[in-house]
Design a protein that fits this description.
Ubiquitin-like (UB roll), 2 domains, 155 residues, two-stranded antiparallel sheet, 14% strand
Length: 155
């Protein structure tokens, strides 16, 4: 019998059937149907799976569900909009046509949202540094950086 773990995900308390060492990404995608976070490298190096855990961007592929259950909350890319309004980073990425294939973008959005929560008006260099570990193979990094700077300015 698989143990039940209680999580707070995107503001809702949920019980999931998962052992404590199950990766949070697996629970989010397979148990809860939240597929915005992507499986990329499986080693926490590419950034595609990033979620917010107590406001800090973490790789959900390397975060055990037990760590998430001990937190005050997990926020996925699906949980960033408020009242149907896209998060400022999401809106700026759309406005700047800064996303191309979409595989990496959810992790980038989450990491950028974490940055803006601690630095509401980052410079382009600060954004580039914050997103350094988010891999994007489409070559739109400059547009992504510009969009995040714009999102900070719009706040």
């Amino acid at each position: 019998m698989t143990p039940t773990t209680r999580l707070c995900v995107n503001g809702e308390t949920v019980d999931v059937a998962a052992s404590e060492d199950t990766p949070l990404l697996t629970v989010l995608r397979d148990e809860l149907g939240l597929v915005g976070s992507r499986f990329g490298c499986g080693q926490g190096l590419c950034g595609a799976c990033f979620v917010l855990l107590d406001g800090v961007a973490v790789p959900s592929c390397q975060t055990p569900v037990s760590q998430a259950s001990a937190s005050s909350g997990v926020v996925t890319v699906e949980g960033l909009p408020e009242g149907g309004t896209p998060h400022p980073v999401q809106a700026a990425l759309l406005e700047g046509q800064a996303a191309q294939c979409g595989f990496c973008i959810s992790g980038i959005v989450v990491r950028a949202a974490a940055l803006l929560s601690t630095n509401p008006a980052p410079s382009a260099d600060e954004v580039a540094e914050a997103l350094e570990h988010n891999l994007c193979r489409c070559g739109v990094q400059r547009r992504i950086i510009d969009a995040v700077v714009s999102a900070g300015s719009a706040r």
